[in-house]
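Consider the tokenized backbone below.
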């Protein structure tokens, strides 16, 4: 029986063995996340928020955002019919909160993906290729690290046409430097290992080493950093929208805060218009943070042992 099992294993292709190893690793990661109570709570909260954002057109049709079709009282306190009250235009704050989650999550996730792609590519290139090219890339990374990313995002949002994609691009192309530096150090660590030297000795090229060895080893760290970065992107979007650099035609949590400030909701005591978007931002950012910390602890044996 053992001989049959050995022969079957020997007949399996390297691709199937690699696939089985990756599936086993994903199961181990999932089991590690399930063991983290805070990580699972954050994951459940994010799942609920994403589901509400996707179902916003069903739960609250877009006509509820049109002030010409509403007869609600303005600045009305919460009631059973209007659980979170109304804004100065008579729109339901709950409806604005649901639709605002779509824009805030879209900006946070897409901007983070752009940032992670740029940071991963630049970081691996700076760590893998030596010489003057690596030196130039490091100086570019240092430049973006020295200048505050939020200031650069404000400049880009001011120069470009206002819109959701302008905010996404402004955040994505200005917040990748930290990821690039992290990936570069991880790339240098990986390429110092013996199996990389054996790959070079067997005639492997740059494409094979990066695609087959470096990138798979770097991706867990990138994924953990991604979950931690989404929260920062959500805060950056809220900041830009609060400063009036977002899309005024589409509700977001940052736009709601700006409208609350412009309408004097804080001084007039209209807490139901000011508090919900701020609490929503805190909950989402905290959920992404605890999920990222739990994922980081799973993939990092040092943190897991602690």
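A designed sequence for it:
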């Amino acid at each position: 029986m053992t001989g049959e099992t050995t022969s079957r294993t020997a007949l399996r292709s390297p691709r199937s063995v690699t696939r089985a190893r990756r599936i086993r690793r994903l199961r181990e990661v999932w089991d590690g996340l399930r063991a983290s109570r805070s990580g699972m709570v954050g994951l459940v909260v994010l799942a609920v928020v994403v589901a509400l954002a996707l179902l916003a057109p069903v739960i609250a049709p877009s006509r509820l955002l049109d002030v010409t079709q509403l007869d609600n009282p303005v600045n009305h306190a919460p009631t059973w019919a209007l659980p979170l009250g109304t804004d100065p235009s008579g729109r339901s704050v709950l409806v604005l909160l649901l639709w605002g989650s779509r824009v805030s999550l879209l900006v946070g996730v897409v901007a983070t993906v752009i940032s992670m792609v740029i940071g991963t590519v630049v970081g691996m290139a700076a760590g893998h290729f030596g010489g003057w090219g690596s030196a130039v890339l490091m100086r570019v990374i240092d430049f973006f690290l020295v200048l505050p990313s939020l200031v650069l995002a404000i400049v880009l949002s001011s120069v470009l046409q206002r819109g959701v994609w302008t905010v996404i691009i402004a955040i994505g192309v200005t917040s990748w430097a930290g990821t690039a530096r992290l990936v570069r150090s991880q790339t240098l660590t990986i390429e110092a290992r013996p199996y990389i030297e054996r790959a070079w000795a067997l005639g492997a090229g740059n494409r094979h080493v990066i695609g087959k060895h470096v990138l798979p080893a770097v991706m867990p760290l990138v994924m953990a950093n991604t979950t931690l970065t989404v929260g920062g992107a959500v805060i950056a979007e809220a900041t830009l929208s609060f400063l009036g650099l977002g899309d005024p035609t589409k509700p977001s949590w940052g736009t709601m805060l700006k409208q609350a400030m412009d309408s004097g909701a804080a001084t007039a005591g209209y807490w139901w218009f000011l508090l919900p978007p701020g609490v929503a931002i805190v909950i989402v950012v905290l959920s992404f943070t605890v999920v990222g910390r739990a994922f980081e602890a799973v993939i990092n044996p040092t943190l897991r042992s602690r």
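Residues 206-242 form the longest helix (37 residues).
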